[in-house]
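pasting input
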Amino acid sequence: MNIIVCVKQVPGTNEVKMNKETNTIIREGIESIINPFDTYALEEALRIKDAYKGKVTALSMGIPQTAQLLKQTMALGVDEAILLSDRAFAGADSLATSYALSMGVKKINNYDLIICGKQATDGDTAQVGPSLAEKLNIPHITYVNKIEEIGDGFIRCTRLTSEGYEVIESSLPALLTVIEDLNVPRLPSIKNLREAKNREVAILNISDINADSKFTGLSGSPTQVVKTFIPEYNINNEMIEGTPAEQAEKLVDNLLSLGLSVQ
Amino acid sequence: MTLKKYHIKLYLNLNCIYKLQDSFGVNYLIITLKRGQFVMENVLIKKLEKEHQDYLRDESRRTGTGESISFPKTEKEIIEILSSLKSNGILITTQGTRTGITGGAVPEGGHVLSLSRMNKVIGLRYDEKAQTFFVKVQPGVVLSQLRLALKKKEFDDTENWDNESLKAFEKFKNSGEYFFSPDPTETSASIGGMIACNASGACSFKYGPTRNYIEAMRIVLVDGAVISLSRGENKAENGSFTICTSSGKLFKGSVPNYLMPKVKNASGYFTSKDMDLLDLFIGSEGTLGIVSEIELKLLKAPKVHYAVTAFFDQEEKALKFVQSIRENASPVAVEYFNSNVLNLLRREKTENPAFGKLLDLPSHFNSAVYTEYAGNSDEEVEDMLMKAGEIIESCGGNEGDTWVATSPQANEQLHFFRHAVPESVNLLIDKRRKTHSAITKLGTDMAVPDSCLEEVMNLYNKSLEEAGLESVIFGHIGNNHLHVNIIPRDMDDYYKGKELYNSWAEKVISMGGTVSAEHGIGKLKTHLLGKMMGIDGIKEMKALKTLFDPENRLNRGNLFEE
């Protein structure tokens, strides 16, 4: 069972700070982390490997520093890590990203399953996984919260829908995007850290994966950011003074005057 | 109480409510005016009402009684309150944020002096010689807030800081990260409360307890006099000391002759022949005076922190690792979780959704040791980690059976695991209390010397098994300081557990240990302190108590059995 896990580098913070002049995210001083949804994908791949044997490869497209994060996946037990890094990949939207990844997957070639996090916590599009499957012409199952069974040439999963759950069976190779209910991602062990120390992340450029620069980076991205802005919040606080009984009475009066209906 | 008895200066006239000040500078509020008689109430002192019920308890779940309450904001207000209460000999219980678990902040009648609103950081100083910063705080500052302010380098009240502090603040902003090292699990503890019981935490293994980071204090005595102590400047000489108050009154006393246990300790008054008098007040649980201002020593923060939880298939191997790691490496913290802890967490993970995100615990994990390493580069700390791996293997463990956290996110997972332990125990106790309401957790806080670690573990394990009691054992094993939590199933278990607890105390004392290493004595462990100090030791402590608080009005019930 050979599994490829797609991994993205995202800013490791919940407190996103914006530059008010340029309306862009301030990335200085913010540590990068593996996209949290991708950690569930990694964990599931490692569990499948533990159960069925095989090989797990982590694949990412990003700036050279992303290699550091890929190294962390090796310390979790990933067998091989590949980083697609080239100036020609810069400025990619989800379409150009999935194209580059698909060329990376074709280069790896020998795989049964691809697992992605359902979306990245910075872009939140949830498009790259399904788009990658389409480019590879393989079936995909999104929002997987449980893998029920893996058999000879098939996989059966439960996926979360807005109404409940669906159980879907697919032939292999296939692509899954996964959600956080799936598992609790492991931490590295000293043993794996020690082993990862001497291993290198393979860095591939555009020609290594035979990609066409027409379809990568900015030139391959039909999506354009026209404007970004910071939503404004106007919340007025009013402190109500008095004894608890008085405060309650004033609060009710205020709410009624604002149009709260009493039934 | 009439107007004639006081030389009162009237300075506010508003809708027939008068704010007055008497010749002692005490503020009063006239609340009614009947037949020419003033009924006066001190502005600061309020009747203890229903809304104040929380101030009658702390985290020990013990509930006390009280008649009045105050929330001073300054040292001057503390003095005002004390002088108002002086004439009637009213008992005074000082409180911080009431996170203690020994009942130390629970009042036994009288007045509740809550320092929770004395919560300002009031200055900063850089000391060239010590090459570090010292931060001046009021006692009600909460640990988590202080940590955040130090990390963000943002303080709320700098407009009131003096020039020296502002200058130091500029330097602070341009320096690396500094931190206040004491780390009790409950980060909503107040600095005053931490001083009262000389609090410590996991990282005290490397950095030591709160005591080591108190550089200066101002203390208001029960009669309103103030003493100001700075480390190194007020010391006992050959067993005697003299302390001079701001008004020139002298207090002469002797330091106790009892020997301090050579372990991490939070039991009774500190003593040593040439002791620094600051140390007498640290850990005195509010019985000698009221701390009104503190200067805390900060440390330069290491840049890199790694943490690792190592699992072993036998307790003996885990204990061997503890002994080896503290001899051969320099971890910041060394914590232990026994097999019952792991079983409890396994159960909680499947039954309680709140613990669903705990990491899986394979069945061959029997016990765990958490260690933490700090340094200034990844390489340095990684070397420490690799060495820890070798030590794990040499003790019969497997370095594959470890959880390593090298990032704050991963560390949160380990943190979650550690904090789930006391939480799970409390949930279990709450469940038991539904059928037996008098049940409480029986949690020990004893520490022994390094050489007695195995002996004390055998003692706990053997006697718990013989008594057939349910329990978990976890805590600061680096300092041989374990929290044994007995979880009674019924009242029979509860009494059996109490008996066992007392028998352990006697054995721990005979090993040269202490009955409380970090929680303090409070009102719940006074009988154990009696056992530890002996009649003569308690007598010496009482002599000090009488010197500073002759009528025994401050935090009555703490430390001493009535």
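fyi Chain A has a mean pLDDT of 90.
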